[in-house]
């Protein structure tokens, strides 16, 4: 089956997706003009497999429509001849990374280790430019231990994660960014497709029932800010998004403190392509986990064993047992919910671990690292 959407693109953005008679078959938003689904392969963003009998639907998303409206045309072409309609051939597998930065060793509770990662990234399965294999190699080369691949409103990338993770020696978390005009949410874990057409409380319930976690992404992100009402708060909050360029600006901290302690702070680069946003690991989300597999990373996130730093190699503030530990942070300022607490002295400094939001600041007041 081949589906094509044509419309006048000056001033309009119309999204494209597909529901089969048995449920979700794909979504590409405004990134593609057409898609192909066959029994063995499909356009990225769409699920391959035989076309089951019954009623199918082309999903049309009215993302941006000018006042005068927009004409469009949908063409559906179906063939029973194998091989007549095929998507692009799958990309060549990426070779294993031969050199990568050594894992950074941070003080941790006995039986655990701090892992460096990123909870927000995209591939060709939505509006990114890298394949899953390319992204896995890129993130491993930047020294990350884990990465959540969170393509918009689709799970078609999930099937490629295990092989890419094994080849590049990196933990890849299944994820999707549930994307609407009222806000974006990260659904982490093998939770199945989250129907973005339903209200956000339903997204949260679906994540919980499937054993996953949900975050509110870039809640203060301009036109992409979170404005959707919810009866309950998700467990994770993307306090640090790549767009927080001037970390002296305290709006993200205000969100975090307003939600504390209901929301666990996490960060994400929102990687799409070179030049449009930050590469994976800017910022770096740290989790204190018992292992390097996806289940252990999700368990650490759910337990709130997290910290965030501006990058993988800079100052880090974390909790170890009942202490706050500042690593490679000599000369920075430790601040808590009520203001500055101490000047950090030395490359490994320990403090009493009080409750609440704590940060490391430089002399200008810019945030370098934070932990709950």
| Content-based structural category | mainly beta
Fraction of helical residues: 10-25%
According to CATH, the homologous superfamily of the largest domain is Metal-dependent hydrolases
Can you write the helix and strand succession as a string? EEEEEEEHEHEEHEEHEEHEEEEEEEE
The main β sheet shows up as:
13 strands, mixed
Strand arrangement, major sheet: 13-12-11-10-9-8-7-14-15-22-21-18-19
Tell me the name of the CATH class of the largest domain.
Alpha Beta
Assembly category: single chain
Mean pLDDT: 96
Radius of gyration: 22 Å
The CATH architecture name of the largest domain reads Alpha-Beta Barrel
Question: In the residues, how many domains can be counted?
Answer: 3
* Strand residue content: 25-35%
What distance lies between the first and last C-alpha atoms, to the nearest angstrom?
50 Å
Coarse shape:
globular
Contiguous low-pLDDT stretches (5 residues minimum) are: none
Q: Number of helical runs?
A: 5
Might you state the CATH topology name of the largest domain? TIM Barrel
Query: How many beta strands in the DSSP annotation?
Result: 22
What does this structure look like?
The chain is mainly beta and 372 residues long. The protein folds into three domains: 76 residues, no CATH class; 200 residues, Alpha-Beta Barrel (TIM Barrel); 59 residues. It is built from five helices and 22 strands. The strands form four sheets. A 13-stranded mixed beta sheet has the order 13-12-11-10-9-8-7-14-15-22-21-18-19, sandwiched between helices. A hairpin with a 2-residue loop joins strand 16 and strand 17. Helix 1 runs parallel beside helix 2. 45% of the residues are buried. The model has no long low-confidence stretch (mean pLDDT 96).
């Amino acid at each position: 089956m081949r589906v094509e959407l044509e419309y006048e693109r000056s001033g309009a953005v119309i999204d494209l997706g597909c529901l089969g008679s048995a449920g979700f078959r794909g979504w590409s938003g405004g990134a593609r003009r057409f898609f192909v689904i066959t029994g063995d392969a499909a356009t990225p963003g769409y699920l391959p497999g035989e076309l089951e009998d019954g009623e199918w639907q082309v999903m049309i998303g009215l993302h941006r429509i000018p006042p005068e409206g927009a004409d469009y045309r949908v063409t559906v072409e179906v063939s029973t001849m194998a091989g007549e309609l095929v998507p692009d051939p799958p990309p060549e597998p990426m070779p294993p990374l031969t050199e990568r930065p050594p894992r950074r060793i941070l003080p941790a509770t006995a039986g655990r280790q701090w892992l460096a990662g990123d909870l927000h990234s995209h591939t060709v399965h939505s509006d990114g430019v890298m394949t899953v294999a390319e992204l896995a190699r890129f993130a491993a080369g930047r020294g990350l231990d884990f990465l959540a691949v969170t393509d918009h409103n689709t799970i078609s990338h999930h099937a490629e994660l295990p092989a890419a993770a094994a080849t590049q020696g990196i933990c890849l978390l299944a994820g999707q960014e549930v994307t609407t005009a009222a806000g974006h949410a990260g659904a982490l874990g093998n939770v199945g497709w989250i129907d973005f057409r339903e209200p956000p409380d339903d997204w949260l319930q679906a994540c919980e029932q499937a054993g996953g976690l949900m975050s509110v992404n870039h809640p203060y992100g301009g036109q992409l800010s979170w404005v959707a009402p919810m009866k309950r708060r998700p467990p994770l909050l993307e306090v640090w998004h790549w767009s927080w360029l001037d970390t002296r600006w305290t709006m993200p901290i205000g969100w975090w403190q307003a939600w504390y302690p209901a929301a666990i702070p996490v960060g994400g680069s929102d990687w799409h392509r070179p030049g449009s946003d930050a590469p994976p690991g800017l910022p770096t989300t740290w989790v204190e986990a018992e292992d390097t597999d996806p289940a252990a990373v999700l368990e650490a996130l759910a337990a709130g064993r997290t910290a965030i730093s501006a990058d993988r190699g800079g100052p880090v503030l974390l909790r170890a047992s009942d202490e706050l530990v500042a690593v490679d942070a000599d000369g920075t300022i430790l601040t808590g919910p009520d203001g500055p607490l101490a000047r950090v002295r030395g490359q490994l400094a320990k403090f009493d671990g009080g409750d609440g939001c704590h940060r490391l600041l430089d002399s200008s007041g810019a945030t370098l690292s934070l932990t709950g």
